[in-house]
Amino acid sequence: MNTSAADPPLDALMTFLSVARLGRYTAAADVLGVNHSTVSRRIVTLETAMGGRVLVRTSGSWEVTALGRRALAIAERIEASVRELVDGEDADVVHGMVRVSAPDAFTAVFLAPAMTRLRRTHPGLAVELLSATQRVRQNRSGVDLEIVVGRPRVRRAYATAVCAYALRLYAAPDYLAAHGIPETVAGLSAHPLVYYVESSLQVDELDRALQELPDSPASVRSTSVFAHVEATAAGAGIGLLPDFLGDADPRLVRVLDGAYAHPLAYWAVTRDEGPRNPAVAATLDAITTYIRETPQ
Q1: pLDDT for the residue numbered 86
Q2: Could you tell me which of 187, 148, 195, 139 has the C-alpha nearest to residue 168?
């Protein structure tokens, strides 16, 4: 059977699938083991064969067009068929790579152990964990799954809450013995507050937690939540910490327990085609299962 020159080759279609999922030519090139120009050339080949644009450039990423969604559905069916052919009886085994961005605390406590467990079941799955404490990006970011603080507002995406927690106040017993225990939230104004560098905060919910508290004296601030924990344990002041970190640290005790807590939640966000990607679906399921089975 002869193939028309206008028919899109399979490599162009599957390259498009990678770009559609990752949002960047460079990220797709890394996954496919080719260079950026090869990805670009294959996308042009596909668009020529289909007679229109399958991707459109937005701020910092590529988004799928209406025509591209047709190609995406076909590419996913081909991918599933090839996986079934190759895996045979092991059709439920997940292969490939998944990239997840998440805040440091979530990564250390939940994500890393969940992904370790997932890879015991699917050793052919490669996982990359990227540290990021920021609001969800409106456009594709080169990752498959974003874990963010607070309910996201983003177009053409799937979002689900995966973990509730609260920011609470903690201190080292020696610090409280030396400087006194505040009896009210207003009394915190006499104590250095260990928290994020205010100018670096990119998450509205984390910023609101700070706004609920009085101004404090000069203190140790950091962009790392683990630096907050260590500074608080060392007696730098009163730390505003995630309860799943503060409660688990024997060096710390709660301050104003019952009088102050800022409830929050972690949300998982993936683009609209993400849940149809077996690697992304398996990753999200592994995260939620691990959190559900882990005592809080």
Answers
A1: 59
A2: 195
CATH number at residue 117: 3.40.190.10
Buried b (16+ CB within 10 A) or exposed e, 171-201: bbeebbeeeeebeeeeebeebbbbbbeeeeb
**Residues 64 and 54: beta-carbon distance below 8 Å:** yes
Q: What is the DSSP string of 163-190?
A: EEEEEEEEE-HHHHHHH---SSSGGGGG
Q: Indicate whether 212 and 234 sit together in one domain.
A: yes
Of 83-87, 171-175, 233-237, the least confident: 83-87
10 Å Cβ neighbour count for 38? 16
User: In which domain, by residue range, is 16 found?
Assistant: 10-88
The pLDDT tens digits for 265-292 are 999 988 755 566 788 889 999 999 999 8
Residue type for position 115: M
Distance CA 36, CA 39 (A): 5
Contact 126, 96 (CB under 8 A): yes
Does this model's pTM top 0.85? My answer is no
Same domain, 124 and 179: no
* Reported confidence tier of residue 7, pLDDT bands at 50, 70, 90: low
- Number of domains the chain is built from: 3
The CA distance from 82 to 14, in Å, is 11
**pLDDT of 109 higher than 70:** yes
CATH of the domain at 36: 1.10.10.10
Same domain, 37 and 148: no
